[in-house]
Amino acid sequence: AQKVTQAQTEISVVEKEDVTLDCVYETRDTTYYLFWYKQPPSGELVFLIRRNSFDEQNEISGRYSWNFQKSTSSFNFTITASQVVDSAVYFCALSPDNFGNEKLTFGTGTRLTIIP
Amino acid sequence: SAVISQKPSRDICQRGTSLTIQCQVDSQVTMMFWYRQQPGQSLTLIATANQGSEATYESGFVIDKFPISRPNLTFSTLTVSNMSPEDSSIYLCSVTGTGVEGWDYGYTFGSGTRLTVV
Are B50 and B31 in contact (CB under 8 A)? Predict the structure, then answer.
């Protein structure tokens, strides 16, 4: 069975501060995919990143960066110089590496509030 | 990636009635999934919509309550039947598909249907 844990239920930071959202996962699959999604108040799910379990390189995209550590089963997400528009619920998710034929397992989400 | 049109975007329904949600994709996709997100909660898979056959339901979800159709590779519907206030949730359609270079390992989501049952 697959499981994703996002221990931080809510985080509040002042604008321009850096913030890291934690994600720990459990799976028995040898290969798998990890994802992060953003859900703003409007409700849609915005795709941020997917990472194959073979690829442990960290990734940076503008103010966003992701740290994947297979040894600790973690896939953490950092926002640098946070902005009010970053306020949203962020979900970490996991799927088996089966060509998209299986469901995503979501964590419980972290509600991030950026204080102006 | 695929573009999904999900309708309606929101609705307020009376207890005991049914609502059908549509998910239209702009290209053929392999898999279509339906998720439920109860207020303040994470996303839970209701079922996998199978083209031309009965959907595959997750534990806790039954066909009588959530009938699903998928007549072709670009369209699916989810019906929420005999609604009660506990059905008030966001319902999301999700798809995966094969691009030009093969499966792109992406899960695309519709914009969701925000349902309130009164």
Answer: no
For the stretch B69-113, pLDDT in tens is 999 989 999 999 999 999 999 999 999 865 555 455 578 899 999
How crowded is the C-beta side of B7, counted as CA atoms within 13 Å?
4
For A:61-90, CB contacts with B below 8 A are none
Residues of B within an 8 Å Cβ radius of A:
1, 30-31, 33, 41-45, 48, 58, 90, 92, 94, 96-97, 103, 105-112, 114
The span from the CA of B117 to the CA of B83, in Å, is 7
Name which of B9, B34, B107 to mutate to probe chain A: the one with the most chain A Cβ atoms within 10 A of its Cβ. Answer: B107
Alpha-carbon gap: A81 to the closest alpha carbon of chain B (Å): 27
Question: Where do we find the tokens 């040894």?
Answer: A71
pLDDT tens, position by position, B34-56? 999 999 999 999 999 988 889 99
B26: left (phi over 0), alpha (psi -120 to 50) or beta: alpha
